[in-house]
Structure formats: structure tokens, C-alpha cells
């Protein structure tokens, strides 16, 4: 008891700044306090501890107080959670979280490494032809060699002029696929139909595709937007040079 009191007073003394006079008198004051503490009479409980009967009576009083409190303020639910149910919920939650993370990683990895293949790329090319989405063809489907050969404005102008002279592309049927593993090139042969004013013209053309950076792009458009090179005649004329003549310019490929 005296040691605890001495420690408390020491902590109080250390928590404030003492004046020079107080510092000089500190040693004397500590001795005086120690003498006062020695003269204090301790309680019997401090010397001998609590009697067993008194401790038992105190425990009974605490129980009565707890029972009285619970009777006045009854609990609305069980005092302890259902540990089995809680464990089951946590297990299911952990499983669903792991499954969600694994699924998200798989789909992200698949999306980053998705390779549509040459046939799918050819299908996108002719789909854009039918909807006149020539800018998408130029920016996303043509290889760098064709973008160097054609300016974007020239490519779009030639494709639009072909629609005027031969009609819009209404169908493109894949008839042959040839892959060359040595050059990593794939040649797709199509039968293309264009329609203008209710009249249709059909011709054959090839698309040459190459794979680079896990994607396929068109390196040679053949007669895709230059139907004359595929043997087609502008709709509205009977022979080349008579009536309406095509005004498209450029070449079929590099």
C-alpha cells in the first residue's frame, strides 16, 4: 500500500514542472510523507484479506443484483450467438467471395487474351461494309501496311464511291479458307453481292489476314471496295465505259 501511494505521488510530481525551491525541498518532503504513511493504521482486510463468509455474501449480493436487473430489463434475444449458424454463414460467405474473385480473374484474363481468329475478323469486315462503317474498318481492322497505303479520307471515299457505282454490300459468303503457317497469313475467299436500285451484281474477292500481337488484321482487301477488279460491272451500264462508269480510285492491295 505504501509503495503504491509513493508511486502515485511520484507520478504526480513528475507530471508538473517543479520550481528550484521545490526541487531543493523534495528530498525532505519525501521523507516526511514516508513517515506519515508509516504512522497510518491499515484496515484489517488489508492485513489479512477478506473473510470467506464475507466474500460469499458479496457474491450472493452481486447475483441478486444481476437477477434483479435482468428481470427489469429482459434480454430480447439469446445472450450467446448460435456458433454453428455463424460458422456456416462465414463458410458460405468465404466460398462465395473466393468464387467471385476467381471468376472475375478468369473473365478478365480471357478478355485480355481473346483472339477472334481470321474468320471472325473477316465477318466483322463485311458487317462494317454492309453498314458503311468504313472508319471502323480503317481504324480497327486494317493492317499498318494498308493504313500507310491509303489515307483514311481516301479509303472512306473509295468505299463510298463503290456503293454508288455498284450498290451496297448485301451479302458476303465465305467459300474458301487457306492458311499458310510459314508466312502466318490466312486467305479468305468470298462471294460478294451488291444491290442497287433492285439490281444485284455478284463478284469474287479475297481478304488476306495476318496475325500480330494476338489479333488478326487485313493486309490485302482485294476487290472488296474495287469490284471491277473482281469482274463486276457498275450497275446501270451494259459494258465497261458505257453509261455510268465507276469513279473509284486506288488499288486492291499493296
Task: Characterise this structure.
With 254 residues, the chain is an alpha+beta fold. The chain has a domain at 117-230: Roll (Nuclear Transport Factor 2, Chain: A). Helix content is 52%, strand content 18%. The chain has 9 helices and 4 strands, in the order αααααααααββββ. It has a 4-stranded antiparallel sheet. α7 (134-141) packs across α9. It is elongated. The termini are far apart. Residues 238-254 have low confidence and may be disordered.
Question: What structural keywords apply?
Answer:
alpha+beta; 254 residues; 18% strand; disordered C terminus; four-stranded antiparallel sheet; Nuclear Transport Factor 2, Chain: A; single chain
Report the structural category: alpha+beta
Count, helices: 9
At CATH level 3, the topology of the domain at 117-230 is: Nuclear Transport Factor 2, Chain: A
End-to-end span in angstroms? 102 Å
The strand count comes to: 4
Determine the fraction of residues in helical runs and give it as a percent range.
Answer: 40-55%
Give a brief description.
This protein is an alpha+beta fold. It is built from nine helices and four strands. The protein has a four-stranded antiparallel beta sheet.
